[in-house]
Amino acid sequence: MGSPEDRLTLGIESSCDETAAAVLRGGRELLSNIVSTQIPVHQKFGGVVPEIASRRHIVNVMPVIDEALRQASVRLPEISQVAVTYGPGLVGALLVGVAAAKALAFALDVPLLGVNHLEGHIFANFLSFPDLRPPFVALVVSGGHTALVRVVDYNRFQLMGQTRDDAAGEAFDKVARVMGLPYPGGPQIDRLAAEGNPDAIDFPRALLENGNYEFSFSGLKSAVLNYLNEQKMKRREVSKPDVAASFQKAVIEVLAAKALEAMRETGYSALVLAGGVASNSALECRLRKMADERRFAFYYPSPVLCTDNAAMIACRGYYQSLAGHFSGLRLNAVPGLGLSNLEA
Q: How far is CA 203 from its chain centroid?
C-alpha cells in the first residue's frame, strides 16, 4: 500500500439521505469530498423515507464515486484502501454503500475498512484542524445519537455516557415537525430561535446530577408537545420563536453542563464537538464561551464536515488501517451500531 503518508483512501458514506464519496491522502490531506443530498426529495414527506433513500443511493453511488476520483485527479487503480460506513443508519441505505465498497475492494484487491459512522463524526475534526491530536473529550450530537467520549488515542475510546432515548438531533427534528417547520428541522429551529426569548418558557432539563454523563431528551420533547397542545386547547396564540428559543436553550444547557463535567473529570485540555448538530450556532457559541472562560481548547468541524460526508469516513478508516483494523468481504450493515469502548 506504500507509505502511510502517501496512502490514498476512498471513503463512501450512505447511512441516511446523503450519498457521499471522498479521496484522502494520508490522514489529513483531503483531495475531494462529494456529497449528493436527497433533502429536496424527502422534504415533501417531512422526513426521510427509507425506501426512497435506498433507491436514490443505488442511482447516485457510482456517479458520486467517479466525481470524487475526478476532482482528486486520482485513477481508481491508484486507490490504496476503501473505507465505508457500515452503521449506524438505515439498513437499506447502508447496504448500498457497503456493497459498492466491497465490490471495489475486491476488484482492486485492496483492504476494506468498515467504519462506525459516529466515530467518523469525531474524526471530521482532524480534517478541519490538522494540528489536533488526542487526547480530548468528544461531544457527539447527531440526529440519531448523543454521547460523551473520552478519546485517549486515535484507536482508543472510552464511552462516558450516551442518550437513553431520543438523541438531541432527533428531538430537534420532532419538535420542528409539530411546529410546522420544514425538514430538516434542526437548522429551522436554530434560525427561528434567534428571533425568540430563550427564557420565555421553562422546559425541563433531565439527568443533570453531577457524574451522570447520560442524556435524555424524550421528556423535553414531550414537554414541548404538551405546551403546544395546551395553548391550542386554550386558544392562546403561540410564539414559535419563543418556543424554539426556550427548547433550544434547554437542550444546549444539558449538553454544555455534561461536557464541562467530563472535562473536569478527565483533566483534558481540549473539547471536540462532532455530529450534525455541531452546526447549530447557539451550541457552538455556548461551548466556545465556556471554553474561553475555563481556559481549554474547543474544536468543531467546518459546516460541510458537520453533516454526513465521506471525508470523515475516509479519515477514520485511515487511522483504523494504521492499527490493522481491517474488515473482510463478509462485512455487513449494522443499522443499530452504537459507540462503545475501543482499545487499540
A: 25
Please count the other Cβ atoms lying within 10 Å of the Cβ belonging to residue 145: 23
Q: How far apart are CA 35 and CA 186, in angstroms?
A: 19
pLDDT tens-digit map of 11-58: 999 999 999 999 999 999 999 999 998 888 888 888 889 899 999 999
Contact (Cβ atoms closer than 8 angstroms) between residue 141 and residue 168? yes
- Helices 185-193 & 240-266 angle (0-180, nearest 10): 100
96-111 residues labelled b (16+ CB within 10 A) or e (exposed): bbbbbbbebbeebebb
Q: How far is CA 189 from CA 185, 249, 258, 280, 296, in A?
A: 6, 11, 22, 9, 29
**CA-CA distance, 165 to 218, in Å (whole number)?**
6
CA distance 120 to 248: 25
Domains observed in the chain: 4-124+306-322 (3.30.420.40), 134-301 (3.30.420.40)
Q: Name which of 147, 123, 108 is nearest 320 in CA terms.
A: 123
pLDDT band at 248 (very low <50, low <70, confident <90, very high): very high
Q: What is the phi-psi region of residue 47: left when phi exceeds 0, alpha when psi lies from -120 to 50, beta otherwise?
A: left
Q: Buried b / exposed e across 57-89, counting CB within 10 Å, b at 16+?
A: bbebbeebbeebbeebebeeeebbbbbbbbbbb
Label the pairing between strands 156-162 and 146-153. antiparallel
Cell numbers at 214, concatenated: 447520560
Segment 284-295, tens digit of pLDDT: 999 999 999 999
Interval 119-175: pLDDT, tens? 999 999 999 999 999 999 999 998 888 999 999 999 999 999 999 998 999 999 999
Q: How far apart are CA 342 and CA 115, in angstroms?
A: 13
